[in-house]
Amino acid sequence: MKPLFVYGTLLFPEVVKKLIGKHVTQKAVLDNYRRIEIIERGQRLPYPALLPLAGARTEGMLLSGLTAQELLLLDEYEGEEYERTEVSVLTDTGTCKAWCYVWKANHLAVSGEDWDPEHFAANALSAWLQELPDD
């Protein structure tokens, strides 16, 4: 099974552990995609969208060793706004194929601002974890 390139809330080991009991395994970079804030009714949401954009670069992590069932659980977590797409990512050991959740929803807008994982960690992670189901 291909690894999953994560770039948003799934970057945080606490989130992944609560969802499937695993953690991210190595750093990776996805070229030609940009991680952008999502806005709904004028409010910035705590999770990002990933959109194709020539020349852009998104840093993230790979989540390896997923079972088919775990991947389905992550599909459900991401919801209908995202499409699991095969991409090529660059790691310290070279290029590899990976799954990635790309934004497809059009009912929510994306801002022109980059989504910042450090800002999420400082301002939203704790509340986000409380919203997740207990394992």
The pLDDT mean sits at: 89
Question: So what's the CATH class?
Answer: Alpha Beta
The residue ranges in which pLDDT falls below 50 over 5 or more consecutive positions are none
Number of helical segments with 4 or more residues = 4
Q: What is the number of beta strands?
A: 6
Q: What's the N-to-C terminus distance?
A: 24 Å
CATH architecture: Roll
Q: What shape does the CA trace take?
A: globular
Helix content: 10-25%
Give me the side-by-side strand order of the main sheet.
4-5-1-3-2-6
Question: Mind describing the biggest β-sheet?
Answer: 6 strands, mixed
Portion in beta strands: over 45%
The Rg value, from CA coordinates, equals 14 Å
Description:
Helix content is 24%, strand content 48%. The chain has helices at 13-20, 68-78, 117-123, 125-131; strands spanning 4-6, 26-40, 43-63, 82-91, 94-103, 109-114. The model has no long low-confidence stretch (mean pLDDT 89). The two termini are 24 Å apart. It has four helices and six strands, in the order βαββαβββαα. It is α+β, with helices and mostly antiparallel strands. It has one domain (4-131): Roll (Hypothetical upf0131 protein ytfp).
